[in-house]
Specification:
Blueprint: E1 7-12, H1 20-30, E2 35-40, E3 49-53, H2 60-68, H3 80-99, E4 104-106, E5 129-135, E6 138-146, H4 149-167, H5 179-189, E7 196-197
Length: 202
């Protein structure tokens, strides 16, 4: 059973949104024995939350994704949310690997938790990426669970392959894919290699 060793990992880039405090507060109310980590650009100071500076745990693969600036000259360029949403998947992997965490829950900073992870455990598949979905063409980190680093690392490596392939096509500038669609491409192209549990609907 998942009990006291649940690890909630949040990620934020640039300015800290006002609603993040409420997100953290709800985690603490619901899971008082859990560990909560906030990976961000700079040191933060939230009571009971471990602050991690993203640049200190970023892997070479993640730096490459950042430096490629894949949404440059696309219609996603004006909204930094798309780039941040994609990069955070790799940052999350890097952090979990650096700190050797297990039982990791991650979601967007505007999500409020009202139920203990233990009560959802029967819905989790320990060998799979547990992730919510919008539809078959979009997978989203509305609420996600990873049992260990290896599962998340496998996801990132397959996602990296999809990104490199797609950005080199002639359609990329006109029809770029956000992280939800890129994740769906990973699932469709590698159902046997990447174990998504997509039975939850948003």
């Amino acid at each position: 059973m998942i009990k006291s060793n649940v690890n909630y990992v949040l990620y934020n880039s640039k300015k800290i949104p006002y609603y993040l405090r409420e997100c953290i507060s709800n985690i603490k109310k619901v899971e008082s024995n859990s560990n909560t980590y906030l990976v961000s650009d700079e040191k933060t100071n939230y009571g009971g939350v471990f602050s991690i500076i993203s640049s200190e745990i970023t892997s070479p693969q993640t730096r490459e994704i950042i430096e490629r600036n894949i949404y440059k000259d696309t219609n996603y360029e004006k909204n930094p949310l798309w780039d941040t949403s994609l990069v955070r998947i790799f940052i999350l992997r890097d952090f979990v690997g650096n700190y050797k965490l297990e039982n990791v829950i991650h979601f967007d900073n505007d999500v409020l938790v009202y139920i203990e992870a233990e009560k959802l455990f029967n819905s989790f598949t320990k060998e799979k990426v547990n992730i919510t979905r919008v539809n078959e063409n979009q997978l989203v980190f509305g609420y996600s669970y990873f049992q260990n680093f290896e599962i998340l690392d496998n996801l990132c490596n397959k996602l990296y392959e999809v990104i490199i392939k797609d950005i080199n096509t002639s359609d990329w500038k006109s029809y770029p894919k956000n992280e939800m669609k890129l994740l769906a491409s990973v699932y469709k192209n590698n159902p046997e290699a990447v174990d998504f549990n997509t039975r939850w609907d948003v």
